[in-house]
Design a protein that fits this description.
By secondary structure, this protein is α/β, with parallel strands linked by helices. The protein has seven helices and eight strands. The protein has a five-stranded mixed beta sheet with strand order 1-4-8-5-3, with helices on both faces. It has a three-stranded antiparallel beta sheet with strand order 2-7-6.
Amino acid sequence: MNELHLYDKLIKESLELAENTGFRELTANDGHALWETEAEQRLIFQNDMAYELGGGGLPAVSALAFTSLPAKADHLLLCGPDLPQLKADSPYARLTILHIDSKDWQNDQQTYHFLRQMEYTRYHIYPRGFMMRISTAAGREPVRVSREALQRGLDFAQVGRLFLEAYHRHPQVRAVSLLFVTAPDFPYHLLAKKAAGMEAVTNSLDHIWNNMVMDCQSCQLKPVCDEVEGLRELHFARRRNTQ
């Protein structure tokens, strides 16, 4: 797995959704200190909340993908109003694309281990006044935003810089593309399908490395392998290495 392209088709289709709606690039480094973080998730109660991204049953999509496609720099993108412009609950999505360099990894199992470490990073980022409630099982990531944080200048650039800094703690991450979406007319349902596909690829990798059942016909993840180029070959390579 020296080159990782299992997610590339889903990445391309997801970015096309943003391009069709329209997005702008935010400043990833404005020269100011990083926004404060909490040591652990701090609750934001309704009395302290300005609004909720993905609240009231609105879309709250979270997607994470990996690629070996080259990228020279980080990209912090926004599709829709920024945090200070929002006045009420809003639909929301966050797409994270990690551009990685795996040429120094010794084998596929080590690659998988590093990918899982990078994935878990999203559960340990706690911007002050920005309370994420991530549920990979439900495919949702609603966020409560505090009034105090908005008064002190919180926006997506501040939040995004914390994500970039956290992911770059992994030396294999060469660049990060991070897209926030609050546009009311964005096709969130389509991005949710792409996010589910990305999660299915990750779950398939988990199955390949931790489950010794090699009968493709009885595997419930067979549709994913049929759809994603490279997964089946990886599964067969794993089978050969364990015989």
